[in-house]
Each structure stands twice: as C-alpha cells, then as structure tokens.
Write a structure and sequence with these properties.
Radius of gyration: 31 Å
Distance between the termini: 62 Å
Helix content: 25-40%
Largest sheet: 8 strands, parallel
Number of strands: 18
Strand order of the largest sheet: 1-8-7-6-5-4-3-2
Length: about 750
C-alpha cells in the first residue's frame, strides 16, 4: 500500500492499482491472502486523523468487498464505517482513492485545511471556520423535445440570415447600382485620378455552366466555395511583404520609388508603406499576384491592402487615399486573377479583400498609468473598416478576409462594418476570419484562447475561420487541432515560414514548410492552406503539392444549437454545472450597485481598483458570468459602465469569464458592449418600449453578436400571473426569432421573480 494524494502524478493511481491488483492476484494465486499497511495510503495527510481514516474507510470498503482483501495493519480504535462517512467526505475520498478527477488531491487538501482549522478552533474556543463547499455530482439537465434532435451532416457552413445569403443569390458585381448614401459619400471623396470602374460582371456565357467553372454575376460564390472546399484543399497565397522585400534586393525600391510621380513631393517619408505601391508601382504588385497564381498555384489571393485604413495610413498622412488604395489593390488582383483564369477556366481564381488589424487596439491600453485609456474607439474602427470595404468591393474583391487578428474587439468592429455594407448593398459576400495566436500559450495578444476567439466572432457567420502569422506550422499544431474540433465552418491556416531568426528573416525552405504543414493534411483539419511571413510562391507550390493527396476537412454535423459565450475563455451554457452540481449558470451579482452596498460606495468614490477585487472574488467563488450594473441617479452611468468594462477586460482573473452588461438604459449597455472583445449577455430589453423599438434594439444586439435577457414586460406592464408570463415570452420569442432572426439559443427570458410570503 503506497501513499496517494502527494501531488505527484505518478502516485495518483497507487490506491486503485492496489485494489485492482488484489483481485487479480487472488484470481491467479488460489487460497492466498492479501494484506497491507493501510496507514501508508494517507501518509500525506498526517496530523488530521479524520481525513486519514475517511480515506482508509473508502479504500478498505472497495478493497475488501470488491477485490477480496483479507488482512491489514490498522488503528482499530479510529476506524470509521463507510456508511458513517459524511456524503461530501465520501465523495472526496472516492475521487482521491480512484483518481477520478485531476483536482482530487487539491480538493482533499482544502478539506484537510478546514478540518485542521476546526481542531485549532476547538482548542482555542474560537468560531468554527466555514466549511468548504466540496464537490457535488452533476445532475442531469431537464430535457425537452427539441433536445433530442439527432445531429445531421452539414451541407455548407452556417448561413448569415440575410435573404441573399439564405437564397445563395449570386453577387451581380454591378456596384454602380449600390447607391446607399454612406457608400456614395465615400466614393464622392475618392482621390482616383480618373473615375474608377466599379462594375465587374461577366457575360453569362463567358465559361460553361456548373462547377468547376465560375462566371461573375451568374454563379453563387458561396456555392462555389462550398464545392471547392469540400472537394479538395484550396490554396491561398503567401506573404506580400516578403515578396516586396525580395524585389527590393534585386531592384531599386527606395523612397523615390515608393513615392513615384504621384507623390514625389509628399510631406513625409513613405518608404515602408507597401500598400502605396498599388498606386505608385502597380507592375510590382500585379507581378507578385501573378507569381502566386502561376508559380504557387493559388486559388485565392489576398489584396495588398493590409494597412489600408484611415487609422493605419495616419502614419504616412495618407488617410484621404484609403478608398483609392483599396480600390487599386483589389483592381490589380482582379486583373491578375482574370488573366490566369482565362488560360484555364476549369480553375477560377478569386480575389480576397485583405482587411488587417490596424495599428491600434480596442482592448489593450497604451498607458501603464491608466488601464481605462484607449487610443481608438469601436465606432472609429467601424468607420475606418467600412471605408476600406467599399474600396475593396468597388475594386473587384470576391471575398472579404478579416485577418491577423490579435485583438478580437478590432475584428468585431471589422465584421460589424462588413455587416453594415452587406445590409446597405443587399449582397451575399463570403467572409473569412483569421486570428493570430502570439505564442505557445495559444492566446491572442488580447488574451483570448482560440476557442474564445471563435465564439466571439461566430455570430458574423464566416464561411471560413482559421489562424495565420506569429508562429510556424509546427508551433500552430495543437491550436489548429483545437479549432478543428469546434469550428462550425471551413478551417484554414497560413502560417509563417517558421519563427523569425536573429535578423528578422525566416529560414524554412519550401520543402521544410510543406513538411511542417503535412500534419494538418494527415489529420483532415483544413479546407484552405497558404503561407504568411517568409513564404513565397515556391513555398506555396510545395505546400500545394503536399496537400494534393489528402482530403479536406469535413464540416461538423449540425446538432442542437447552444449558447456559446466568451471572455478570455469560452463557455457553452448548456454544458455548465455549478458548484452544487446543478445544470445552472451562476451570474455573480456583486458588481451590481443594487446587489452590493460596498460596490456602490466604491463606484461612487471612483475606486475602480478595489471594485475589481469584488469581481475577482466572485469568479473565485464560482460565478460563471459577472453581472455589471452601475445604475444610480447620482452616477454618470454611461461613463461608469465604459470605464469599469475597459478596466475589467485588462484583468485576466475577471475577464476570463463572460460579462453580463446590465442597465435600465439601452445606451449604457450598448456603450459597454463596444469595449468587450468576448461574447456578452445584455440585460435587458422588453416589449415595454413598444414593438418597433424592441425590434430595433434586438437587431442592434444581434449585429454585435451578444446574447440577450428579455424581461416579461409589454406595453401594458409587468407579467405577474402564469398566463401573462407565457403570453409575453411567446410573443417576444416569435418577434425575435421570426422577424429579427435572432438566434433562439441566445435568448434568456426573465419571467419576473416576484416576492412571496407577504401575507
């Protein structure tokens, strides 16, 4: 009998191994007896006899009655009968002896500390300490008819709710017909020397009908991508910056060339502004596009527009040229794709409008002195991305890719802007999203895991999600595997050519990089693959050739939808059990002015640091979600909500869980929502404001991708009776699901818990 509960993994099975061995030995060695020194088992818990004898009781119960142990050296006076054990103690001992849970030793150590404190308190006549909650077995969730739906094979990625997407309506590529005032205003201030050609439709008989041929204006690109990505692993391109650097090693590419004739008298240096080359050196950019298409064999190429937003172009004082930069970057790619497609119409090539992260972040504070400080707002990001999207689409982009995401809040702003464009235009444009995990922690720069990142952006219904940059394929492997198990749409990777060397370059050869990507193909994790920093057309060619003998990733089956929230980590509500074993989501109430007098005083005095300690304590005590409410007549709720959330998202122990943003005024929750990179719950909306405003608020929340609490109120007041509660909730549900197209799994009804026992 050897010691368990030491904290060393190799010791964890000593108890169960003895019990199992006892039975086997007696089976194969007739008539023998089995003995052991029982006190050895619990040596790590010496000093607390109750703990030790409880462990012994569980061990002996199973060893004797189930395995046939006959003899043992024991302290007979202290022995405890199995049936006399407290239920929570019995569970702790069962978990420890049989190594049932990874935290079994820690749980027993916590209980040991409590029992030791009880001994001390008795000796000193002190108040008895609070007993640890312990662990409870998880109880089953109440099942309804819709819970028993069997998963079905997916035929395509989840569809956006727009009519065009639902019906697979082909993009007509007649952008001149898109005249929304916001789009028209961007075009009106364009700097293009000549009026840009913004229509890109093709005659319907340009190429034969049906896959693998494709004609713009005739065929649904959504359908085409689904066919392509399910028939083989599609090829994306490689690094634009690396190719520009390689060009500069062989040709003159200095400040003069960056400026070109157009910007020869520009007010500041522009060397390094690679996006500008689409205007000043278009032959270089188009040449790179064609190399990826012809040498690499890319099916899709990204535009040279990574930094083409007003925010990023501020470094070169070229904010006014953003539309033109995006238009030209997309136009050159359109020309290159069309020229290569014409040579082999059975392999159409597509333009992916590349939307980078900008050089500012919504979640990360630039000042160590003030964690609530930011250098950009959500609305500023949306405006910048919207202008970029208009330029890309007018230039001939087929697909929009939000890429190299190191802060998911920026990505949410980009997706919001894309959503606005799709709403204004009525088009169905496939959207891809690509995150960047910055190191082996498997997290973005703003702290999210890959799964939390996906949960935060999945409301936008991207056709393809994946990872790029920061790491080589070898280091990405565990994170790609995790994403492959949770992503509902297609999955891609375009890794770096290894990690940067001391000179900032990349050393992986094409063959080595192809070998590093092989694990993705062997496991069937990908639908599209390419390269990022350090990769070139020969790298893409080698990866393509490596991928050709493997099948693409199968879309996961479609089952019952679940509410999928996120902070720094993801959380599926239907899979949650609380500390009592109940299938129940604990929402911490102590960061609510109405729920905590201490929190109210801290907020009134502006002590946000101590207020964060309250939030941390709630998470430690078992809150799955933190409720944030700053409603008070003496407090500026709009400012307080924003400041609290901005600080909270920088505290990992708080922001690892999702937030519930709670306010009586809709503008306050909306303001807080714009500082949350994760998927939140908004509390609340109701029909009290009237049906039209209710739909307007719900639509806005749907665009932000949050879940929502809906109170059982309507125009006549609060629901008090069973009939009123059911009537109002059903009416709200029908409006949200059938008219707003709000995901039903993201609706939380509050039918009003009212006071009883009043007499």
């Amino acid at each position: 009998v050897l010691t368990i509960g030491t904290g060393m993994e190799e010791h964890a099975n000593y108890g169960v191994d003895f019990i199992n061995a006892t039975k086997t030995i007696k089976e194969i060695c007739p008539y023998v007896k089995i003995s052991g020194g029982i006190s050895n088992l619990s040596f790590g818990f010496r000093g607390v006899m109750k703990i030790r004898e409880s462990i012994h009781s569980v061990f002996l119960q199973h060893a004797i009655l189930e395995s046939g142990m006959d003899v043992g050296i024991v302290n007979a006076h202290e022995m405890i009968a199995y049936d006399d054990l407290e239920e929570d103690m019995k569970l702790l001992c069962e978990n420890l002896v049989f190594n049932k849970t990874p935290e079994a030793t820690d749980d027993m150590l916590e209980r040991t500390a409590y029992e030791r404190a009880c001994i001390d308190a008795k000796k000193k006549g002190l108040t008895m300490p609070r007993k640890p909650r312990g662990k409870f077995p998880n109880l089953p969730r109440k099942q309804f008819a819709y819970d028993n739906v069997q998963p079905k094979p997916a035929t395509e990625p989840p569809l956006p709710t727009s009519e065009a997407a639902q019906n697979h309506t082909p993009n007509p590529y007649r952008n001149s017909n898109i005249t929304h005032e916001k789009i028209a205003a961007i075009r009106a201030k364009a700097t293009n020397p000549t009026p840009p050609k913004i229509d890109h439709c093709q005659p319907s008989d340009t190429y034969p009908e049906s896959f693998p041929h494709f004609v713009r204006g005739r065929d649904s690109l959504r359908e085409y991508i689904t066919s392509l990505f399910t028939s083989r692993i599609a090829m994306y391109d490689g690094a634009m910056g690396t190719m520009i650097q390689n060009y500069a090693k062989k040709n003159k590419l200095e400040e003069e060339e960056y400026r070109g004739e157009r910007f020869k008298d520009w007010k500041c240096n522009t060397k390094g502004n690679n996006d500008q080359l689409s205007i000043t050196q278009p032959h270089i950019i188009k040449g790179i596009y064609k190399e990826y298409l012809e040498v690499g064999g890319s099916d899709l190429i990204g535009t040279n527009t990574f930094s083409s937003t007003t925010i990023a172009m501020g470094d070169y004082e070229m904010e006014d040229y953003v539309y033109e930069l995006n238009y030209e970057g997309a136009r050159l790619a359109r020309e290159a794709c069309d020229e290569v497609t014409a040579k082999d119409p059975t392999k159409p090539r597509f333009v992916v409008g590349a939307i980078g992260p900008t050089n500012r972040t919504g979640s990360i504070y630039p000042s160590v002195e003030d964690p609530s400080a930011r250098n950009v707002t959500f609305d500023e990001l949306v405006d910048a991305y919207f202008e970029q999207v208009v330029g890309l689409m007018d230039g001939g982009a087929d697909i929009l890719m939000v890429e190299t995401i190191f802060d998911t809040l920026n990505a949410k702003a980009a997706l919001y802007a894309i959503g606005e464009y799709l709403e204004f235009s009525g088009l169905d444009i496939p959207v891809f999203v690509s995150g960047t995990l910055v190191d082996q922690s498997g997290r973005t720069l703003s702290g999210q895991t890959g799964e939390a990142f996906y949960a935060s952006i999945r409301h936008a219904k991207p056709m393809c999600v994946g990872l790029n940059c920061a790491l080589g394929a070898k280091h990405m492997t565990p994170f790609v595997e995790k994403l492959s198990k949770c992503v509902e749409c297609f999955l891609h990777v375009y890794s770096n050519a290894g990690l940067p060397n001391a000179m900032g370059g990349y050393d992986e050869s094409p063959d080595y990089m192809a070998q590093a990507n092989k694990v993705f193909f062997e496991n069937g994790w990908l639908n599209m693959v390419g390269g990022c920093c350090g990769s070139t057309p020969p790298h893409i060619k080698a990866i393509r050739e490596m991928s050709e003998s493997y099948k693409p990733r199968k879309l996961p089956d479609v089952g019952r939808p679940k509410m999928w929230l996120s902070g720094l980590e993801d959380l599926k509500v239907e899979d949650v059990h609380n500390h009592l074993g109940l299938p129940f989501l604990n929402v911490g109430e102590r960061c609510n002015i109405s729920g905590s007098l201490r929190f109210k005083k801290l907020m009134m005095s502006g002590d946000y640091g101590t207020a964060m300690d309250i939030a941390k304590k709630q998470v430690e005590d078992g809150a799955h979600v933190i409720d944030i409410n700053v409603d008070d007549g003496m407090l500026d709720g709009l400012a307080a909500m924003q400041k609290f959330v901005k600080i909270a998202v920088t505290e990992p122990e708080v922001s690892k869980v999702p937030f519930m943003l709670d306010a009586s005024k809709f503008e306050i929750v909306l303001a807080g929502l714009k500082w949350c990179q994760g998927k939140c719950i908004v509390n609340s909306i109701s029909l009290k404001v009237g049906e039209e405003l209710f739909k307007e608020q719900a639509t806005l929340l749907k665009k932000h991708g949050c879940a929502v609490v809906v109170m059982a109120f309507d125009e006549e007041g609060q629901a008090a009776t069973e009939e009123e509660k059911v009537r109002i909730c059903k009416r709200s549900y029908d409006i949200l699901v059938n008219e707003v197209k709000f995901p039903p799994e993201d609706i939380i009804f509050d039918p009003n818990v009212l006071t009883i026992g009043t007499g």
